[in-house]
Structure formats: structure tokens, C-alpha cells
């Protein structure tokens, strides 16, 4: 009998069969897993590119919203609009720098309506005659109310936003932007996890790499691939230094200089590395499984394929935007590490998307919802209220004198106040209410399902919550606010109009000195009339429709007329006579009183100079508003006018109010000292109606105290008024000041003032305000009369 060969034994054949079968099975499994891994890697890379594109666009949108908010704040800034309207280039440049610095803007520009470059933070010297370099941005802003685009400017990419500067019609265009450089590309890489290159394509088809996170050698290789860049659509593969990169071109913006795109890239080698490791592991497992049992090989195969299936399913969920379910793999091998890394990647993507959403809808300083989130909740509340037919209210709250706190204590203190106010507001309202910060010191409050009584109670609680002072570094700071309210459905059914109406009511509360104001639709005509009045007042100054009338002041001791007050009058060609009480307060609210004051000063100084040259010496008083008193240029303007018209400084008297002095005591005192140094006469007007302290008033370089007519008019019949007038006269004399009483309408009042020792009187009992020629004739006729005995002054008919 011949010996049996080893391979002829059943055990050997079975062993060989199962070994061969296992090798074949393991070979098939290895091939399947490798193919599956390659497919998963491709899917992951494609998904990463798509997610990266969404992340890039959301960051671009976020920056656009930041730029839009900052640009709108700048365009709405009253001082900036005034500087634009008066073409005050230094102030414009300063405002552009300051507002740009607040958000680290790279460029801030102002364009005129004729598309001239007024100011450019990059090139301060390029103003006036240069054409605005981005005309298409103006076209878009003119058509849509604002414009946002990524453009090439001097060959560099900028993310720009443009809005109109209104007063109330557009008077200029202001643009603000961020430079998109290597720092921008690095930020995008940090958020997306991809290689990011900012590229541009000129009109001639030439591509340029503007910024990139790739190594410099790969950037050169990318430039060498210029013909292939033209073919990149949603996805393509480029070889950089011999290494393949899956690439996606995301167009960010077009401009006359070219198209700006973000080229997002993922290295295939890095993406397939985990799967290459998996293939190596499978080979080792195959060798080990040959030495063990078929059951072991089956278990190993199962342990390999299950995590792969889970990863593939997770990749599909990520593709569909589902980041909530992690991959659960209860293994401590390389596949478990891969699954853990996959979960970490999944958590990172979800966290970045959550952060992007939070930045888009949350105020970073206070943690409150921002304007975008508030508008979204307002729209949702409106839909719910419309279905359920329930009322709700919108409030807009603005802190009083917040800018003064910022200027006095600094912006960090202002930030602490805003955070404390936000905390108090949240603690005052219900969980279902929404408190949002709209920007600056302005907050919005949404009160769902609130009737008028509930709204009133909520308003009072808000006011009460802000009453306790806020302590900053041991110093208490009083905070008050003005609150405007609009209600659904009474005041509108449009969310934007409800917010706008609440804002209108807030400004009404601020102007009236109250704390809470409810929107009043009947005031719409008045507001439109005021807007029209501002335009007509501007034209009245340009066309010299204003006129000055002069009301004499009687020296009670001698009966002489040595002074007068200049009072502005407006005879409108259509409206007829417009009382000063109608247009002066409105001019003060809008800031246009500065132009009215300058017209009055020019006219008064010119008139005094002409009278002086003609031998008629009379001191004339002119009123100066609070805004003028805080204007550092006022003394220089008056000095120039006095020199131009050869007017003696002592013949001009400026009347200032107590409230004007107390609004900013230090600046007011500095201005008054400079005016006093010019030789001007200074008077405190309407004394007794403000809240100034005597300790401060005695520091003022004034020569005259003027008693408000509300006390003088009825003092002959009202003992309280007579007591106030007597005390004021004694106070003024004790302070070394002359005392003038205005609003004297009766001989009895004149006699009483004379008996109290008042120095001068002004009112209809002496003369009504007269035009300049009539005043001169009246004064010359009066001076030609024989002088009455000292201590007596006859009544002069108006």
C-alpha cells in the first residue's frame, strides 16, 4: 500500500478547502471593504466640500449683516448726517474712521449723489474729484435700498455693504467693507476644515490667487492649473505638486474688475488615509483568521463590516443635514477609533453650525436675541395672533443720556450698563416675552397675548426695574429710559410697521420728557408736515425768507433805550407767518437750529455794524441754542463776523438758557469763557425755568440775568410770582449781575419792577418787536424826545 499524501487526507482537504475558502472569502471581503471605503471617502469629501461651502457662505452672510448694521448705524448717526449735509470733510473722515474701527472694517467710503468719492479711509487724500470706484454698488443700493457684494478693489477682494445717508432723502452713499486676505482664508479654513483659496478671474479670463491656506509651492501649482480652473464647477479634481485634491469653486461676487470665488479643497490622500489603515488591518485579520477557525473568520468579518455600514449610514445622514445621531461602535480597535474620530468630526460640524446660527441671531454683548431674531419671533407671534385673534404689543426702549455715559466713563462702562439693563429686563418679564437688543442702547420687547392693562403693567415694571442706580467701580450711575408702545391689531398688522410705530412712540416719549408713550396714528400727518417744514426751512435760509424783528429793552432807572433783542420771524410764501414756537423747537430736535443760529448771528452782527457806522449805538441780544453752545467753532465764527463787519464786540449780547448750560457743563463753560474773552456780553435767559445749581451759575462769565416772562406776566396779581421775581432780582444783584424782566405787558407790572430795583424791562408795554427800519425810526424818535425824569418811563405804544 502506498503512503497517503498529506493533501489526500480528509482533514487536510477540509483544512485546505476551508483555508482556500477563507482566503477567497477574506479576499472578497477585503475587496468589498476597500471599494466601500473608497466610496465612503468620496462621499465624505463631497459632503465636507458642500458643508464647507455652506459654512463659508454663512460666514460671508454674517459679515454682511455686521457690515449692514454698522453701516446703517453710521448712516443714521445724526452728527454724521449733519457733517455730510454741510460737507464737513474732517468730521466725515473722523466718523468713517471711528465707526469702521468699531467692527475692524478695512475700508469705509462716502460717495456723493453724483458718484464722486467724498472720503475714503484707505486714501484720505482722494476726495472731491475722484470717481467712486464701485458704481455698480451704488446702482444696487439705489434699486434695493442697500447693497452687499464681494468685489475687487485695487486688485484686492473686499466684502462691501452700501446704504444711503438720508436727511430724510438720500444725500450720499456710505460704504463699509472687510478686506478678504490671508487672514480671512485662514479663518474660513479654521471653521470649515478645508483648504481655502480666494481667487479672481479678470475679464480677459486670467485667474489670480488672492489669498490661500495652501503651501506656497502648491499655490504656484494652482496657478499653473489656470486652464483647469475654468472647468471647475460644483466638483473636480486638481493635482497640486502631484497630490490630488477634490475641489469646489464657490462664486462669492462679481465686480467690474473681475469675479471673486472661494476655491475649497480636500486632499484625497488625507481623506482616504483612515480607509487605507482599515485595508491594512483587514489584511492582518485575514492572515490571523487562517490560523484560527472559520467561525473566527466569520466573526472578524462581521466585526469589520458592521462599523463600515454604520459609518456609511452616518455619512448619508450628514449629507442630509442630520448631525444629532452619532455612530455607535462598541469596539476598541482601529474601527472604534475611526468611529470616534467620525463622531468628533460630526460634533465639530454641528458645533460650528450652531455657533454660526448663534452669531446670526444673538447679540454677543448681552446674550439677548438680536434684531434678526426679534423680527423672526415678531412674525411668528403675528401669525399666531392672527389665527387666534389675540392682541399683542411691541415695545421699543431707548436709554436716556447713554452717549453721555459712554463719553464720560468710556465704552467698557457703557457695555456693563447694557448688560445690566438686559439682565433687569429679562428678570422683569415673563418667560413667553421676548427681550432683544436692536443695537446701540436700543432694546425691543415683544409681549404676546397682552391686552392694554397687561401692557401698561409691564411698562411700569420695566420703568421701575431701571430706577435703581447701576454701580460701576463703586460709582452709582442713574439710568432712565424712554419707552414706546405699539399694539396689534390697533396700530398695524405688519411686523415692520409695528416695530416702526413703537420706535416713533419712543421718540415721542423722549421729546415729551415722559417715560412711556403709546403710538398715536393721528400724529402721522404732523410728522409728515414736520419733514416738509424742515425742507422748507432749509430753503427759507437759502432764499433769505427769514427776517429779524427787534424788541427794545427799557432801562428802568433812566428811561433810556440802550438795548434790544433780535427775534427771528418767518413769512412763508404759502403758509404765511410761521410762529417761532412752531419751527424753532423742530429745528432744535433735528439739529438744523445750528443753521438758523448762524443766519441770525450773521444778520445781527451785520445790522449792528451798519447801525454803529451810522452813529446809532445799541446793544442787541441774540438767542443761542444748546447745540450752538456746545459747538467749539462758535467763538471763532463770531470773531470772524465781528471783524468782517467792524462791529464792536460789546454791542452783541448772547442769551443762553439754564438747560443749555447744564446739558454739558464743562464744554458749555469753556465756550462761554472764549466768548467772554472776545468782549461779548452774556446773559442767562429764562432764569427760573431750569434746574441749574447756583454754585455752578456763579462760575459763568455772564453779566446779565433774564427773568422768564411766565413769572413777570402776572406778578402784579399773583403774590407767588411777585415773590419769585423779587427773590430773583435780589439774587442777581447779590451775584453782581444786571437783571432784565421780559414779558412786561402792563404799566402796573412796569411800576412794580421799578420799585423792586429791576434794571431793565422788555415787553409789549414798551414796544412789540419791530422790523429793523421801523425799530430804527422808533428809536430815533424816542431819543429825540426830552428825557423823562429819572425813575419814570412812559409807556410806548407798539
Strand content: 15-25%
Largest sheet: 8 strands, mixed, barrel
The overall pLDDT average reads 82
Shape: elongated
Structural class estimated from helices and strands: alpha+beta
Number of strands: 27
Summed up, the helix count is 27
Strand order of the largest sheet: 18-19-21-22-23-24-25-26
Query: Helical residue percent?
Result: 40-55%
Features:
8-stranded mixed barrel, 27 helices, alpha+beta, 5-stranded antiparallel β-sheet
Describe this structure in words.
The chain has 798 residues and is α+β, with helices and mostly antiparallel strands. It is 51% helix and 22% strand. It is built from 27 helices and 27 strands. Strands 18-19-21-22-23-24-25-26 form an eight-stranded mixed β-barrel, surrounded by four helices. Strands 2-1-5-4-3 form a five-stranded antiparallel beta sheet, with helices on both faces. The protein has a five-stranded antiparallel beta sheet with strand order 7-6-10-9-8. Strand 6 (195-201) and strand 7 (207-212) form a beta hairpin. Helix 1 (10-76) runs antiparallel to helix 8 and helix 1 (10-76) packs parallel to helix 10 (334-361). The protein is elongated and about 140 Å long. Residues 1-7, 9-15 and 790-798 have low confidence and may be disordered.
Amino acid at each position: 500500500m502506498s503512503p497517503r499524501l498529506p493533501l489526500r487526507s480528509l482533514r487536510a482537504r477540509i483544512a485546505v478547502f476551508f483555508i482556500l475558502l477563507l482566503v477567497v472569502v477574506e479576499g472578497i471581503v477585503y475587496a468589498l471593504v476597500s471599494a466601500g471605503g473608497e466610496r465612503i471617502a468620496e462621499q465624505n469629501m463631497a459632503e465636507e466640500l458642500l458643508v464647507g461651502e455652506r459654512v463659508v457662505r454663512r460666514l460671508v452672510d454674517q459679515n454682511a449683516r455686521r457690515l449692514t448694521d454698522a453701516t446703517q448705524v453710521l448712516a443714521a448717526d445724526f452728527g454724521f448726517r449733519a457733517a455730510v449735509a454741510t460737507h464737513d470733510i474732517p468730521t466725515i473722515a473722523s466718523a468713517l474712521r471711528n465707526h469702521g474701527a468699531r467692527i475692524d472694517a478695512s475700508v469705509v467710503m462716502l460717495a456723493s449723489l453724483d458718484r464722486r468719492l467724498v472720503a475714503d479711509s484707505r486714501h484720505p487724500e482722494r476726495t472731491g474729484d475722484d470717481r467712486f470706484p464701485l458704481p455698480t454698488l451704488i446702482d444696487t443700493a439705489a434699486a434695493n435700498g442697500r447693497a452687499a457684494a464681494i468685489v475687487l478693489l485695487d486688485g484686492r477682494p473686499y466684502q462691501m455693504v452700501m446704504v444711503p445717508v438720508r436727511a430724510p432723502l438720500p444725500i450720499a452713499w456710505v460704504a463699509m467693507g472687510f478686506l478678504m486676505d490671508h487672514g480671512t482664508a485662514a479663518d474660513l479654513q479654521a471653521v470649515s476644515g478645508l483648504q481655502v483659496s480666494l481667487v479672481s478671474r479678470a475679464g480677459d479670463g486670467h485667474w489670480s490667487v488672492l489669498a490661500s491656506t495652501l503651501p506656497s509651492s502648491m499655490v504656484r501649482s494652482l496657478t499653473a492649473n489656470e486652464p483647469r480652473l475654468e472647468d471647475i464647477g460644483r466638483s473636480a479634481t486638481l493635482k497640486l505638486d502631484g497630490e490630488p485634491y477634490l475641489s469646489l469653486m464657490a462664486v462669492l461676487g462679481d465686480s467690474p474688475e473681475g469675479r471673486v470665488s472661494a476655491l475649497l479643497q480636500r486632499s484625497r490622500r488625507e481623506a482616504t488615509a483612515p480607509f487605507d489603515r482599515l485595508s491594512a488591518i483587514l489584511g492582518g485579520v485575514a492572515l490571523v483568521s487562517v490560523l484560527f477557525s472559520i467561525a473566527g473568520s466569520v466573526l472578524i468579518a462581521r466585526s469589520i463590516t458592521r462599523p463600515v455600514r454604520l459609518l456609511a449610514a452616518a455619512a448619508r445622514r450628514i449629507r442630509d443635514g442630520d448631525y444629532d445621531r452619532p455612530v455607535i461602535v462598541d469596539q476598541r480597535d482601529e474601527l472604534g477609533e475611526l468611529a470616534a474620530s467620525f463622531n468628533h468630526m460630526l460634533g465639530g460640524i454641528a458645533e460650528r453650525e450652531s455657533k454660526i446660527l448663534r452669531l446670526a441671531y444673538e447679540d454677543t454683548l448681552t446674550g439677548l436675541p438680536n434684531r434678526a431674531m426679534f423680527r423672526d419671533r415678531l412674525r411668528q407671534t403675528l401669525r399666531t395672533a392672527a389665527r387666534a385673534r389675540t392682541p399683542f404689543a411691541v415695545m421699543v426702549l431707548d436709554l436716556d443720556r447713554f452717549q453721555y455715559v459712554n463719553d464720560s466713563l468710556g465704552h467698557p462702562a457703557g457695555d456693563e450698563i447694557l448688560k445690566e439693563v438686559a439682565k433687569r429686563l429679562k428678570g422683569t418679564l415673563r418667560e413667553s416675552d421676548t427681550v432683544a437688543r436692536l443695537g446701540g442702547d436700543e432694546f425691543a420687547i415683544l409681549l404676546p397675548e397682552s391686552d392694554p392693562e397687561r401692557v401698561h403693567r409691564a411698562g411700569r415694571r420695566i420703568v421701575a426695574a431701571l430706577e435703581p442706580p447701576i454701580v460701576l467701580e463703586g460709582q452709582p450711575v442713574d439710568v432712565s429710559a424712554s419707552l414706546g408702545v405699539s399694539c396689534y391689531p390697533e396700530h398695524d398688522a405688519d411686523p415692520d410697521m409695528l416695530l416702526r410705530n413703537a420706535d416713533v412712540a419712543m421718540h415721542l416719549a423722549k421729546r415729551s420728557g415722559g417715560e412711556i408713550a403709546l403710538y398715536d396714528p393721528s400724529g402721522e400727518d404732523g410728522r409728515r408736515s414736520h419733514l416738509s417744514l424742515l425742507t422748507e426751512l432749509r430753503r427759507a435760509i437759502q432764499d433769505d425768507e427769514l427776517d429779524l424783528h427787534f424788541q427794545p429793552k427799557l432801562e428802568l432807572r433812566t428811561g433810556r433805550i440802550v438795548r434790544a433783542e433780535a427775534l427771528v420771524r418767518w413769512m412763508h410764501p404759502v403758509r404765511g407767518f410761521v410762529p417761532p414756537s412752531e419751527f424753532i423747537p423742530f429745528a432744535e430736535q433735528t439739529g438744523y437750529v445750528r443753521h438758523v443760529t448762524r443766519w441770525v448771528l450773521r444778520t445781527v452782527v451785520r445790522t449792528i455794524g451798519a447801525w454803529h457806522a451810522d452813529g446809532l449805538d445799541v446793544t442787541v441780544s441774540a438767542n443761542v441754542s444748546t447745540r450752538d453752545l456746545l459747538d467749539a467753532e462758535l467763538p471763532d465764527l463770531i470773531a470772524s463776523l465781528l471783524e468782517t463787519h467792524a462791529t464792536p464786540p460789546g454791542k452783541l449780547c448772547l442769551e443762553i438758557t439754564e438747560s443749555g448750560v447744564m446739558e454739558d457743563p464743562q464744554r458749555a463753560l469753556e465756550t462761554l469763557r472764549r466768548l467772554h474773552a472776545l468782549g461779548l456780553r452774556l446773559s442767562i435767559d429764562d432764569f427760573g425755568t431750569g434746574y441749574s445749581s447756583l454754585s455752578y451759575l456763579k462760575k459763568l462769565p455772564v453779566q446779565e440775568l433774564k427773568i422768564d416772562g411766565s413769572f413777570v406776566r402776572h406778578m402784579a396779581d399773583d403774590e407767588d410770582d411777585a415773590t419769585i421775581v423779587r427773590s430773583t432780582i435780589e439774587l442777581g444783584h447779590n451775584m453782581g449781575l444786571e437783571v432784565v424782566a421780559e414779558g412786561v405787558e402792563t404799566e402796573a407790572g412796569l411800576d412794580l419792577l421799578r420799585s423792586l430795583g429791576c434794571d431793565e424791562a422788555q415787553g409789549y408795554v414798551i414796544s412789540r418787536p419791530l422790523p429793523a427800519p421801523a425799530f430804527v425810526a422808533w428809536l430815533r424818535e424816542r431819543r429825540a424826545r426830552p428825557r423823562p425824569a429819572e425813575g419814570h418811563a412812559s409807556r410806548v405804544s407798539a
